Amino acid sequence: MRLRRAGAVGELQLFVGLLLALLAKKPASSLNASASAEDVPVNEPAVELVDSDANVTEPKEVEFGPCTVTCGIGIREVILTSGCPGGESKCIVRVEECRGPADCGWGKPISESLASVKIPCIFVPPEDRFTYTWKMLIPDQQSLILPNDSAILEVHRDTHPVAFQCDTSENDELIASVKYTVYTTAELETRRLKKPATDIVLVFVLITGVIVCVGVLFAIVFIILNWEAVKHFWQTKIWRSREEVIHSSYASRTTENSAQVPTAENSQTSQLETSGQEQGVYQEWNAEGGEN
Question: 62, 136, 140, 141: least surrounded by Cβ within 10 Å?
């Protein structure tokens, strides 16, 4: 009997153990399912969201300002057009670099004298961030690379004009390239002599224009302040001119009339001539009658 009871108790314990094992496996599977669900990547929206005062999320709309340069490397502003704090329509988020075409053409020196000239490469601070390659351009030949690797090169003037080029690179990538022409001392003096003549002409034209404008302004102010006197003067002048025209027309008419009216002497002369002609005709007629 005891053996049967011990066997029954053992079977009961085994059944309870199996039941507990099954109950323990179900939560573990549910935990694994939840863990697997967390490991699945979720595609988040590309648009950033910002909390407004009403606790409503609004999308951030960003636009880029113009670049400070047309070639090489510069900076530009990143402007937020939606979701700015304080209800502003636009606000600057950050300032970032921007790049244009690498070819910057011909540049102007920083400073120059009759003996030397300083020419710069194109870069943005910090200066040591980039690498600089200076070249001397030789016509119909390969460029000569100079040992100078700084951002600014000081060149002494030669007996003939020389062209230089600087290439600015970062991580072996060409960012900007600029060229300079270093003229001779004689050419520089010639250019400086030509510029004053042009400047003198421009200054003369400017001064003349200013004087004319000031004179016109004073004339307008004088007319406004003395309008009655100016009006009376012009009216008097107009009346005088009209009277002169009337007098001249009357005089011309009087002259024409006097020319048309015959004088006493003219009438007597005409009468004598008429009577003489009549007597001559009468004598000729009498002579013809006597002959018959």
Answer: 140
Strand partners for 79 = 63, 92
Cis peptide bond upstream of 126, omega within 30: yes
Each residue's pLDDT expressed in tens, for the chain with a length of 292 residues? 443 444 455 566 656 666 665 555 544 434 343 433 333 333 333 334 343 343 334 456 788 889 999 999 999 999 888 778 777 788 888 889 999 999 999 999 998 888 889 999 999 888 899 999 999 998 888 889 999 889 999 998 888 889 999 999 999 999 999 999 998 888 877 766 665 555 677 788 889 999 999 999 988 998 888 888 888 888 888 888 877 778 777 777 777 666 555 554 555 555 556 666 656 555 665 565 555 5
* Cross-strand partners of 92: 79
CA-based Rg of the chain, rounded to a whole angstrom? 56
Q: Indicate the pTM of the whole model.
A: 0.46
Token pair recorded at residue 200: 């003198």
Q: Going by C-beta distance under 8 Å and a sequence separation of 6 or more, which residues neighbour residue 146? A: 134, 135, 136, 153
Instruction: Name the one residue in this structure whose structure tokens are 């039941």.
Output: 19
Q: Give all domains of the chain, ordered by start, each with its CATH number.
A: 54-99 (no CATH), 103-183 (2.60.40)
Helices and strands, number each (H, E), in the chain: 4, 13
Helix, strand, or coil (residue 73): strand
Amino acid type, 100: G
Phi and psi dihedrals of 71, rounded to 5?
-155, 160
Q: For residue 166, give Cα distances in angstroms to 29, 37, 100, 107, 128.
A: 68, 58, 17, 10, 15
What residues contact 279, with CB distance under 8 A and at least 6 apart? Answer: none
User: Which residue from 129, 119, 49, 144 is spatially nearest to 97, judged by alpha carbons?
Assistant: 129
What type of residue is 140? Answer: D
- 116-120 and 131-137 beta bridge pairing: unpaired
